[in-house]
## 1
Amino acid sequence: MTHFTDEELKAKVRDGYIVESVEEMTEGYRKALVVQLTVQGDTELMSAPAYWMAARHAPSTNTQVSAHAIIQDELAHANIAYRLLEDLGESKEHLVYGREPAEFKHPYGFDQPLENWAELVVANGFFDRAGITLLSDVFKHTSYGPLKRALVKVDMEETFHLRHGEVWMKRLAKAGGEARELLQRAVDWMFPMTVEWFGLPDSMKRHSGQLDYRLKGLTNDQLRQVWMSSTVPLCEELGLDAPAHRDEEKGEYVLDFPFPCRYDDAAKRWLFDEGEISWDEVFARWKARGPMNETYVESVQRSRGVVARWLHGGAAA
Amino acid sequence: MHEHVYDVFARKSRGDPLAHIGYVDALDDETARVYAWKTYDEEHWFEMCVVRRSAIIPVNREDGPFAGGGSEKP
């Protein structure tokens, strides 16, 4: 039973109404929420193998512990998002184990290899900060009660990941030499990648159901600004070059590179020289997925069928 | 592998109300206890318990988030 029409529901959530169950949703609301939670769950899930393979580069047992604690958190967050999706009638089994690698909806950043400790900590400092930026906006504004409650834990833990990233970025910057060079190299490819993560600029953004249904509060450009407003000062403080600066007149951060632009994933280098490209080209790159996509998805899915067979004597569940 | 939905309740300190903090999918009660404890480790809980969602009996409404046993297939 649907109690409201789409227009009624949009008006109600604008006035602060909190949706608690699937019965109250319109199909439009449910679909927009499914898309949002799928991206959220896939992002958390795919960060786990990316961080797990990078955790091999941890320089001590203590850093191994903190790197793995972050992985554990990410998997728990993924589980929370998929669990919420089950309550909306989706199948976690299918979402995690039944999809092809290219069908996952995480950002392109988590299709990339993290190949040294500097790259892992910049991922914590940049990617996890993007996660907090997006999810704390959802926490503040979402009209879906179960998601708001679930995000208390998620936000708390993502803040720890970010702190881990920042502390280590500072340490590596201070060390100078090779540590600093690797850090700068990581910033060079990960900064534009995170900027791109926030998606289409508002001037091109098609109508957003997520805003109309109050599933989020800020637009893509506003979220990008929030992310840059803490990331750019951090880089400046550490003496790292980040391709953006604050324009005092405009009162906002502006990018110092053509956006969007091409990326050479083998060289881990943005092709600024080739100038601005269309968003269609970006969407095509995202859709084709990045170099580690299959490896990461395979590492998550690989043992499911095997253990199901052990437990059920040949009848894979 | 058929898993059940378990809701997780906890309180931080003595005197706090028991609050719903999340959920896990688990094969049985024993794994649900382990998953809940390992998953919701963001606080040093004074008390945590899990309840199989299908055991929750709705009192005043049939369309609340805990009604109907979630995605439990009886």
## 2
Amino acid sequence: MRLTRRSFIKASAATGGAMLAAGCAASKPATSAMGKTEKAKGEAAGKWMASTCQGCTTWCPIEIFVQNGRAVKVRGNQLSKANDGYCCVRGHLILQQIYDPDRIKTPMKRTNPKKGRGIDPKFVPISWDEATDTIADKLMELRKNNETNKYMLLRGRYSDQNGILYGDYTKMLGSPNNISHSSICAEVEKMGAYYTEGYFGYRDYDLDNMKYLIVWACDPLSSNRQIPNAIRRTNKVLENGTVVAIDPRMSNTAAKAHEWLPVKPATDGAVATAMAHYILVNGLWSKEFCGDFKDGKNRFVKGQSVNEADFDEKLTNGLVKWWNLVLKDTDPAWAAREAGIDKAQIERVARGFAQAAPNCAVWYGPNMQPRGTYAVMAMHALNGLVGATDSEGGLCTGMGAPSSSYPKIDDFQDPIAKAGTKNKKIDQRGYLNMPALKEGKSGGGVVTNNVPNAILASDPYDIKVAIGYFCNFNFSGTEGARWDKALAKLPFFAHIVPMFSEMTYFADIVLPSSLHHSEQWSSVRSKANLHGHVSIQQPVIDRMFDVRAPETEFVWMLSEKLAAKGFDNPLNWLKSFKDPETGKAPTTAEEFGLYAVKIRTQKAWDPAMNKDYKGDRPSSWTDFISKGIVNSPKFTFRKKWADGFKTETKKFEFYSVTLKKALEKHAEKHNTTVDKVLEVTNYEARGELAFVPHYEAPRRHGSRTAYPFDLIDMKSRLNREGRSANNTWLYSFKQCDPGDVNEQDVVQINPADARKLGIKDGDMVKVTSTIGSLKVKARLWEGVRPGCVAKCYGQGHHAMGRVAAKDITRAIARGANFNEIMPDDYDRLSGSTARNGGFTGVRVEKA
Amino acid sequence: MARYGMVIDLHKCTGCGACGLGCKTENNTDDRADGQTHNWADYRSVMSGTFPDVKFEMLPVLCNHCTDAPCVAACPVTPKAMHKNAKGITMHNSDRCIGCRMCQNSCPYSSTEIKDGSNDYSVISFNDFGKVVHARYQDQTEVIKGCTTSGAEIAKKAGMTPPHATSYEHPDYKSVRPDGVVEKCILCDHRLDNGQQPYCTTVCPSEARVAGDLDDPNSQASKLLKQYGGRRLKNNKGEFLGTSEKGAGPNVYYIRAYSARK
């Protein structure tokens, strides 16, 4: 015990010097003393106001408690069917985000033309007027030189108003380059459901009626992508059935689950195909969904091909083809060796899963690994094999929510703009080695992390003017040094952000963004728990600085400047956004911001439009705002079973005719073969194997001898999409990411491995990949598979603010951002950035 | 006198951090400094076994509002700053507190100093004499001069330090405590009388926490205890009292198991 001199004096005064005696007296606990005159008790007056959290991809309807103009507490929207009125831990962090001591409070401009990490940009404050005028000048110059395609818009976190700045406005300015963040996030997982059942999106789950849940390569209790609902309902499955987690590290779900399969990274495809093998050999597939042998005799025997004509297939396509091409040889014993887990466990899980069908689901995650497409196809194929897809108690595509269109741009896009948009997009999507086959289209998906490569190579051309908002690709992209170089090359970059991030370092103009959850009008749509929703974001507090909503107010201000310079199409388009209630055209940025949201959500709140809607029907805009949400009706199962899937065959495809067609079209575009495409995109499959879910050996950077450990990238449940590192509360409870340590940034290593390397808990270690080294504290942890090291994403900022960075002025990071040592690689079929599956080999040594 | 306590259902708990952080937003506790966590609601993780047969349990922790509270016995002032109120809550009166830390020293769930680099916790924290409370909101430094704000500026604009402080009134404690006093969970007594649960309980997304009078057989908390039995912590190392051990009579009970694995 520490007793300071002052405390002793204060104590002596209070006890008449008898402190020690009193302290030793074993007096009975006193029942309150002072309470003769009752003072006021309870919370000061305040109001819960509806908004939406975008701290992760759940997009939770929330409410913020406002006392005397201050935001003081956060909870889930009490009317939400997606979260039943609860937010996860991220919601509470909103308060520190609003009141962050390092928020940008004014537009600013760079005065040091030299750009680079650690080079002080020498920012000085400027007015909004000067800032938007400068940007408008740059855009007008592109128009003058007939090179409007050299404008690029980079979108990070967005709302349902993104269609303005990101969508139509880019076209009106004459550029094809609206680049989203999507493919550094989770695009691979969409390939699983798309190339089996024609659905390019995230699935929803009927947890209330589920008996067997396999959580695979994700951790729904902490991230991706309906967290409060997963927290609330996973324990029901734990109680009523079985929960299994498949992950090389002990995630939150793995900690709670009945079974944990700690597979070697990127061997998931082996386990999935082994489960399918076991299900077929043991006759456990859904006869109702897949069909059966004509004579009812199961001919699925290990190693033996089956005659397709013997099988009468129902709602699926190519089950026997899949067996003959892949499954006949993928027995659990083989997968157990490949994945480094127990054969009996694979069999037990396969059996339990199939026996619970259709009340079961494989809930798989991003799988952002170089050969991830085939792994997620194998995982999703299991959902088809047992008939869990589109079934009560299983999983489904989920519900949408009402939205209305913005005014069309047709009358506002002039010939210069039309010509400009016809150029190729900057990110090289659809190139031979980058198929990016979103929704079956060659070059259909964005390749975010390839943008710096394209800029540095000036291929297909160079970019001269860029605007980015709510993005920080230099930090969130792997091998981020490429972004540093590309942005240093970029002649003009404007960044609209609330905080000074790593990317902001390279900006010529910085504009302070309002915060979507508390300082602006916007709306979002999302889904969870079998309901979709449209949810409002509104200014719950007065702005403390002159910050603006990037997707609406900034657009208006820029358009006014463009109009003053003789280009009035954009402003005229914006003026056609009339208030649906009054018919009034907007006259200010603020009015435009509000009307855009009213227009987008009109179908949800306008009684004339929502009268036949089966979900919530607010009586007016005001009613909608006070409630903050419109819930859709509940999902109806088995419509797809009845009406067909959106695939080429209208069936659930085990043999993906949809993928075959997409690959053939891409090959044809480049006058080559599908096999050649697969060769240059680093997949192992050749021939027919390319069209069925199968296992591909992990693709890895670095030899096992020089880089013996597989690096696992994990996500923090306290990470507000990379934006909470300057919030002290993230550090207060960092141990809520199992294995991590409060107030620190650590790399998790199994104690057995650490012992061999002479590393003790808390030692600084140097972690080296083929592209670089980082120093970080080691945490010895039995929850990580030997041979792997796990590192949580989120820390290692050299910018952001005084908490996130060790020394912001000298660009010295606090902790380590392992994106810096993850090589730039892709699951090229989807165009997604690789960050999972242990694709980065690393060496660990005591620093 | 009632015996208010809490029942925490570990089967439902996912160790998500919402109770810990929710408490910070309700009770406006400071950031960790000088070996003090200032987390009235916190966590103790317990890991056992070796890979792959490992078991991880997350225990949400808070003041146990012990029946024979050593902190109350140790409080040297008269009348006591640390005392039991009519609900049986171990209440702390910050006006009478002299900051001697004898409560912190005597509490089996507290430590006078939490080491950096550990996930240890302490139920009672101490605001040292002369400490600037919520210092980050009094700092006038601008990281980018004239362009980014400062803690002091943003607190001034919001009109409060810390700017997100929840305002409430209670005869015994303030919504933001000054220097020179200890502080700990008071079971949100300012909420209980208004028919509300403690805020950690209200915000728990899995509804794993139930506060109530354990002497009232009809309280939800008592019913859960009757249904499942319960374990109580012995100290702040994650160890539980044996069936015959009474300890200080802690009134926070843990029911069921965190992990479904045997």
## 3
Amino acid sequence: MFEGIFTGLSTALMPFNLMMVVVGCFAGTFIGMLPGLGPISAVALMIPITYTLDPSSGIILMAGVYYGAVFGGSTSSILINAPGCASTLVTTFDGYPLAQKNQAGKALALAAYASFCGGTVGAIILIFAAPALASVSLSFQSSDYFALMLLGLTSVAAFAGKGQVIKAMMMTVFGLMIATVGNDVITGAPRYTFGQMDLVDGISFLLLAMATFALAEVMMTILRGNMFSTSETMKPVALSSMKLSRSEIKEVAPTVARSSVFGFIVGVLPGAGATIASFLAYGLERNLAPERLRKMFGKGALRGLAAPEAANNAASTGSFVPLLTLGIPGSGTTAIMLGALIAYGIQPGPRLYVDHPDVFWSVIISMYFGNLVLLILNLPLIPYISRLLSIPPQILNPLIIFFSIIGVYLVSFNTFDIQMMVFITLIAVGLKFLNFPMAPMLLGFILGGMLEKNLSRALVVSDGSFNFLWNRPLTLTITCITLVILFLPSLLKLGRQMGVKMMSAAD
Amino acid sequence: MNLTKDRFGGLLFLLLSVTYGYYAADIPLLPRDKFEPFHAQTMPYWLSGLGVIFSILLIVLKPATVAENEPLLKSNILLMLGLMAFTFIFSVVLPWLGFPITTSLFLASSYWLLGERRIKILVFASVPFALIFWLLLTQVLDVYIAPARLIFW
């Protein structure tokens, strides 16, 4: 393991890769600050650039962008009460009230320190957790992989939120359907190409990610009319001192420690991600706080700001565990990274640890550097970076559209891809308007090919029988977890209803 | 039964799943495939079935109380469609007019569509940007970009 850590250190410490971390953090902070554009869009926008880099540098850049975007999202949450992404929504609860009390500088500093601690704790646990899980998963067979992918897809849908589970499942199936377009990977038979040569290779992952996240998000901003309000009503508040007193540090330190570990654990769960981690950490801290401090939550409580910030950064790190060790992304952003790695010809999973230790370890090590960069370079520069928020939206939005389409064009040099993007963006906007979540679709699309390959292998080995799902204890365990995740919310609801009925009958 | 957003989405998805399943029959199979437990049509048929099941569930089940979106303004819809049209035109014109001219036109017209009326901004935020970006790609990053067909005919 230590040999691997040194390999990762030497790769991550290469001047070019260090520069990638810095560039990634800056670009991510800027994109993440723009309301509506979150880490998924930020990472998607970076993919075309990473295609010109070697895998380690590319993935380091994307990890930097990921961190930067989460940090940028917190900044806009605190300064203008507009979260850049869902995972920083909770930051607005106490961050913006602090900014309104002329403590914006303190709020930003606390958010940065909490994020740094969350990310650091996450990176340290990751160093030990990832190789352990990777060595266990080396014994996985195709049936286990199939069950794991099913678990990943199901849990993303199960955590989609109240009333959204069926929609998320539908979107997963939709993503799997899109993945079948093009020549079949096993037999080479053309599927759903309708005689179009441009569809023989299937739909590009980059095209789909850009269209459904970057382009569709800009279009939704325009549709909702938000772009017209950005420049007029969302004026950033003035920054003040960034210093925290000793008593304030003493107050938030236990919160940060608890939320970091808690956030990491939630982040590891496939599908849970940083958003759920930040909400749960906030709720946990509010419940743990003494009565006097509990009243402050929602009105500018330091604990209320530190908890979600530490948790969402630790969860972002945690979501790399299933990606790097099992090849199953834990969030929408890591799903995009998975697609980018596959485009490099690198298959994340248990073999990544053995076959590409430089990529595996450099990603983990660079996460720590990313946190350092955010703290040392980005925090002092926030007053200047936040000025970018004043770029008029009528200029900024066309530029984002341009970067999205040109990013896809520069990979394929095929204008058909831009036309396809327009078509997919219109569908994505329609689906967003009908409240269908996009991340399960992208995850279904990315895992579709692997899911089909592993299912095919498992079925051939078991002679067409589905008993492979329960023949091996490991597969059976994963299948059971999948079923529990899928049906637990319904069973709990049923239990609650029965409990209420029994109570009323007893009365 | 009201036609809520969820049910409308469910109906659309049902239509998609049925059509997807219908076209699965067009996927060519190898001669031995019929005796294999898994072939090129298997996954599409299963996905089509799953799609139908989920769509029916969404149509039949009681809709969840999700906050309704604010009604969209017709002018915003037209703006969005306009930008999409410009993007489509960009893809058609790009090979003919070349990268710098098409990009400048696309950016300037998009700024204008979104409400920017100052000529200075329209010109200076598009033409120099397109030229610098083109130079960066071709001269610094050594990316080959095909010349305009109309100009270099």
## 4
Amino acid sequence: MTYDARFRVWRGDATGGDLQDFTVQVNEGEVVLDIIHRLQATQAGDLAVRWNCKAGKCGSCSAEINGRPRLMCMTRMGTFGEDETVTVTPLRTFPVIRDLVTDVSYNYDKAAQIPAFTPRARDGDGNHRMQQVDVERSQEFRKCIECYLCQDTCHVIRDHEGNKAAFAGPRFLIRLAELDMHPLDVVDRRAAAQDEFGLGYCNITKCCSEVCPEGIHLTDNGIIPLKERVVDRRYDPLTWLGSVIRRRPRD
Amino acid sequence: MTATAPRRTGAVTPGSGNGSPPPRRAAIAARHLRTDRWWIQPLVTMTVLLAFVVYSSFRAFQNAYYFAEPYISPFYSPCITTGCEGDTFPEFFTGPSFISPAIYILIIPLGLRATCYYYRKAYYRSFWLSPPACAVGEPHRRYTGESRPPLLVQNLHRYALYAALVFNVILTYDAVLGFRDETGEWGHMGLGTLVLLANAALLWLYSLSCHSCRHIVGGRLNHFSKHPLRYKAWTQISRLNAMHAKFAWLSLFSVAIADAYVFLLATGTISDLRFF
């Protein structure tokens, strides 16, 4: 079934821009990215859009569709009414380069600041060994495709540009959690999580979990456990006393 | 090994992490472009929470109609002053008569729910509008979250949990006392017994599904394989944890319903339906 859909697409760059109206053909089974491509091919040849795999795995085509952070390639046109106007805008949290393309280098900078994976010494035969049950939690976070939709929707930086210096965002808080929970890693990142990466800024309103296209439970399985680990070290007098008296290890 | 300093690179982009003036974002004036009814959820949350706060405050200050043999309202249990109706708990002291016995104890359940990770989401969104919904701009000009006082106190959630677990034992004991009749004879049961049992069960589910509980039981470990029992317990609590929000609401309703049932019995509005 084919119909003509009304689209409003933000067009412009860092000096300014606005929402422009288009009417474009939609075919059965298509996704928003197909329509953006048709716009490029038929009406707006210079429309800038970043995309790659078209399968929800590369994390390139992140945008805001009707105000909600989504992957354009994973948003079916069938979810909208035929008489509905579909609005597509660039990610609000990051500086715009042009049209739907934003500069996400904030994320690369934060990623580079995270203390790297540091495994314990190898076993006698030169191998690293770990049990599946021990590494399972970290593996959930490895599903991340770095689309940065969680970073985009996080109000800590979305609504407060000034917090970017102090807050790494949910994607990198779960990176810290992933490493801190890893059975082979020996670095204690709890103090850094609180002091350098702004864990305390997160008020766990769970928008990051709501928008994650990989279904990662960022808040329940990553950020809250990391907050609890920081409490162990920083705010729980009993745990602190236990660690002083018994010199107890982390396990 | 202790914490290492975060790595520093020379590639920090101006305005994207180092405090310099930011490059421009897309010029979109609207606070949001959502087309769904995003405001319904915070509105409903605020309405229900406010209704509970009003009702529970009224009942806590009322200092009457909280005991109808053999049932005691969960708002007043444990009843620890000599002014208490009934005899469900040791009376530790005599407080001023104008202070309701509920006032001394409500800090525990209030503390648990106020610092609960789920309720934090609920009230930050619905009362503080921070944010009211995902990708909807918040009205505040500054935001520091839970990084400084007074919200740093949220980190003491686990202590509220410990205290609440003791309360759960007491409320379960209250439910068991419900297997008596009006004369104190055991082996009886009424609708009130079921109400108190359901309330105690939901409070246990709410407390045990708590994120802090999940952490304490096993989440803090990095090697589950060395602690098989704790891993099994963590796995079960993780299953409950997925329903934490549901238990948070159900237990809130069950506390109010249990109190209302005792209130109706104590005022003589209804009589208890006795099964045997």
